[in-house]
Amino acid sequence: MPLRAGCTGAPAGPHRGGSVHNAAVGIWPPPSRLNQQERILAAKLAGGVSQVRPRLDWTAADPTAPDPRKPSAGSGTCHGALLVATGQLDAFLLLGAGPWDIAPLIPIVQEAGGTFSDLTGQYRIDSGTALFARPGLHQQLLDIAGAAD
C-alpha cells in the first residue's frame, strides 16, 4: 500500500526510487544532543542517503552550536515520523526517545503504509531508538545502521 498524503487518500509526494541512496531521511535530535555512538550512527546513515533533514554535520559534537529550527519553523524533523506518513520523507530516525515519544507514531505510520522498528529490527518501543520508513527502504536503512557498529 503506498503512503498517503493526509486524510484525503491522495498519493504521497514523488518517491525517489527504491534505493536507499535516493532516499530523503530525517534524523533527530541534532548532533549536539547525541552521544558519540549515536553521532557515528547518524553520520553513517546521513552519508548513505541523498538528502538528510536537517542538513547538519552529523559528526560534529559542538555543544555550543545552536539547535536547528523546530518543525514549526521549517526543519520538519522533530515529528519526522509524521512526514514519513505523509510522504514528505522516505524515512525518519529518532534517537534517545522514550516509549511515549515512539508509541503514538507507530499506528499513524503503519496506517499510511509505512514500517517501524528499533535499530535492531525489532518491534520495540523501549530501546530508545525508532526507525520509521517506506517498506522498501526499511531493511536497507537497518543494514546501514548495523554497519555503523
Report on this structure.
With 149 residues, the chain is α/β, with parallel strands linked by helices. Helix content is 28%, strand content 17%. The protein has five helices and seven strands; from the N terminus they run E-E-E-H-E-H-E-H-H-E-E-H. The strands form two sheets. A five-stranded mixed sheet has the order 4-3-5-7-6, with helices on both faces. Strands 1-2 form a two-stranded antiparallel ribbon. The N and C termini lie far apart (32 Å).
Shape annotation = globular
Order of helices and strands: EEEHEHEHHEEH
For the largest beta-sheet, the strand count, sense and barrel status come to: 5 strands, mixed
As laid out across the biggest beta sheet, the strand order is: 4-3-5-7-6
Compute the number of strand runs: 7
Query: What percent of the residues sit in helical stretches (DSSP H or I)?
Result: 25-40%
